[in-house]
Every structure is written in C-alpha cells, then in structure tokens.
Amino acid sequence: MKQTGTLYFFCGKMGAGKSTKSQQVASEHLAVLMSEDEWLSMLYPEVIESFEDYITYSRQLKPLVKKHVQNILSVGTNVVMDFPANTRNQRKWFLDLVTEVDADHQLIFLNLTNEQCLRQLAQRRNEQPERAAFDTEAVFNQVTNYFEAPEASEGLNILEFSRKDSR
Predict the structure, then answer these.
(1) Higher pLDDT residue, 69 or 126?
(2) Does a structural domain hold residue 50?
(3) Is residue 167 one of the residues assigned to a domain?
(4) What is the C-alpha separation between 85 and 2, in angstroms, rounded?
(5) Which CATH number fits the domain that encloses residue 123?
(6) What are the pLDDT digits (tens) for 80-93?
(7) CA dihedral of 145, 47, 110, 4, whole degrees rounded to 10
(8) What is any one GO biological process for this UniProt entry (predicted)?
(9) How many separate domains does the chain show?
(10) Does residue 1 form part of some domain?
(11) For the whole model, what pTM was predicted?
(12) Which domain holds residue 89?
C-alpha cells in the first residue's frame, strides 16, 4: 500500500501565532509549508484591502491549492498549511482534502484569549508595519465573530495548545 503524507493545519484566532507555529511544525516534520498569506500577496498584490476581498480571493485559491496539496500528500510528503481552519466549513474543507487521498491529518488548535491575540497583533504591527492596516483591533473583532472552536464531533485529530496569560 502506498504511504501518504500527513497534513498539518491550524485553528486559532487572528494573532494566535498560527504562522509562527506552522513554520515550527514544518521544520519538525520535514514538511512542505504553504502559506495562504504568501500565495494571496503574490497572486493578488495591492488588491486585498478588506476582509471581504480576502474572502473572495481565498475562495478562488482553494480549488488549485486543494489539488496541489493532494498531489504532494499522495507521494508521501508531509504538508503544513498555514491557512485558517477557524470555522466548521473551513475544517470540513481540510477533512475532505485528506479523506479523498486517504491521508492522515493533525489540526493544531492555538487556544488563546482575545487579549493574548490582541497583544500579539500589536507586536506584529510593530515588527511588520506593512500589515498595520489589516492587523487592527477592528479587523480582529470582525474576524473573531466568525471563529468557531473545533469540537471532537467534527472527526478531526485535534492537538490543542493554550498559553497561560502572565499579565
């Protein structure tokens, strides 16, 4: 029987550290790392100016990415996707992706409080000024309204990380 790779993907509010954790996981598992932010910024530079724009272009990207990731998994290579899995529908897309090629998966849930995420967003705005217009508290609140924590009933292999707030 042919060995498939494992797909690692992430759930966590905006600013939870999904991109940072994805780089770590890719290194640990010798995996191909795919970042939605990178793909969108390269394919649609200067076009995504709102959350609605992001939704539109993210949807256009998904069919190509799905097939590409399935091909990589099918040859036995692990894949880390720095794409959000923050709603049931998004997680179902990932689950369908792996089920269709009979690959394993791991959902990494970064379970941080709103306050922790907002602090990390503030730090990211300082470190990456080009993201300052999008990484705001207003956008965080808008995006967080859609957030749904993963549940065991979804049939996912969930690994949860939380961090004690020291402040």
Answers:
(1) 69
(2) yes
(3) no
(4) 27
(5) 3.40.50.300
(6) 999 999 999 999 99
(7) 120
(8) cell division
(9) 1
(10) no
(11) 0.91
(12) 6-162
